[in-house]
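Worked Example 4.2. Consider the chain below.
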Amino acid sequence: ELILLQEIYTEAIDVWSVGCIYAELLGMLEGTRTEDRGPLFPGSSCFPLSPDHKHKTDYRYHTRGKHDQLNMIFNLLGTPSEEDIQGLERDDAKRYIACFAKREGEGLRTKFPGADEDCMDILDKMLRFSPKERIPVTEALDHRIFIDIKDTRKETTSPKLITLDFEREPDLDEALLRKYFCKEIRGYHPEVPEL
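Applying the procedure from the previous section yields the following structure tokens:
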């Protein structure tokens, strides 16, 4: 969602992040090739946010770029379906994704041959291109992978969704967000100056 500059995103973006971190942990399992340990999608550029410095405005270069972040994702997971592409909110993002060569992807199993089926199942559900297709947080927490370690007697739940004050701000922009971050930091480090 962030790479494609989607303005509206949900907690599904965090599920993707957790999936990437979980994949790094799976990379430590026996049987994983040494070169597959580390970030799951180790791209070095990503148009338009961090384009290759030699080809800053050439988006077609990035669709073919070996180290482009989206190419790394598509090489492993495959290119998104037409339905997933149409689910994007920006027309320029839809056109951009359509420029990538269609492919199936190597599949997550190729990276983690030592992981069991439950590990692969939850990873696959967390790393879906469409945020609507990703496993919801509550469902992920109830996944069978946690059966042996989860103790519901020790769990607490909030009676309502937690919303932070700044999330209700109608004109939240980068400058205001920085102000809120600094305010929070000053709670622990009063020496930090106000913006």
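The chain has a mean pLDDT of 85. The CA atoms of residues 79 and 103 lie 6 Å apart. Compare this with Example 4.1 before moving on.
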